[in-house]
């Protein structure tokens, strides 16, 4: 991923803000699930850039940037992931030439 792609990480971090760790028996946090789905879309981009392609560092980075007290929009997150999956194979996606949908932007 080029430096142009890094702003996307900031956008995602703000869009999924509001997730907090819970007890082991708590249901999965939807924001954490969104982070995993988001990082899954970008795994091939990371691998193509010579970075680890397993998504672990991506998930750690985005999870660590969640601001406390922010909100999570499941409909926006779902739309964001759906559209990202559709455009992920377009030329220039990994280079940041293909813009993500507005649903991936913070409110």
- Principal-axis shape: globular
Whole-number mean pLDDT: 79
The count of DSSP E runs of length 2 or more, i.e. the number of strands, is 0
> Which sheet architecture does the biggest sheet show?
none
Compile the SSE list and pairings.
Layout: H1 6-15, H2 30-48, H3 56-64, H4 74-87
Structure summarized in a few sentences:
The protein is mainly α. The protein has one domain (3-18, 29-104).
Descriptive account of the structure:
The chain is mainly α. It has one domain. Helix content is 49%, strand content 0%. It contains 4 helices and no strands. The protein has helices at residues 6-15, 30-48, 56-64, 74-87. Helix 2 (30-48) crosses helix 3 and helix 2 runs parallel beside helix 4. The protein is globular, with a radius of gyration of 13 Å.
Which terms would index this structure?
107 residues, mainly alpha, 4 helices, globular
């Amino acid at each position: 991923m080029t430096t142009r792609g890094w702003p996307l990480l900031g956008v995602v971090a703000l869009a999924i803000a509001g997730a907090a760790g819970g007890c082991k028996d708590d249901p999965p946090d939807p924001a954490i699930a969104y982070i995993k789905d988001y990082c899954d879309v970008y795994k091939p981009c990371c691998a193509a850039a010579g970075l680890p392609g397993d998504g672990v560092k991506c998930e750690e980075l985005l999870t660590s940037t969640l601001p406390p007290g922010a909100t999570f929009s499941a409909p926006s997150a779902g739309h964001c992931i759906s559209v990202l999956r559709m455009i992920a194979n377009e030329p220039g996606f990994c280079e940041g030439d293909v813009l993500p949908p507005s649903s991936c932007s913070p409110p």
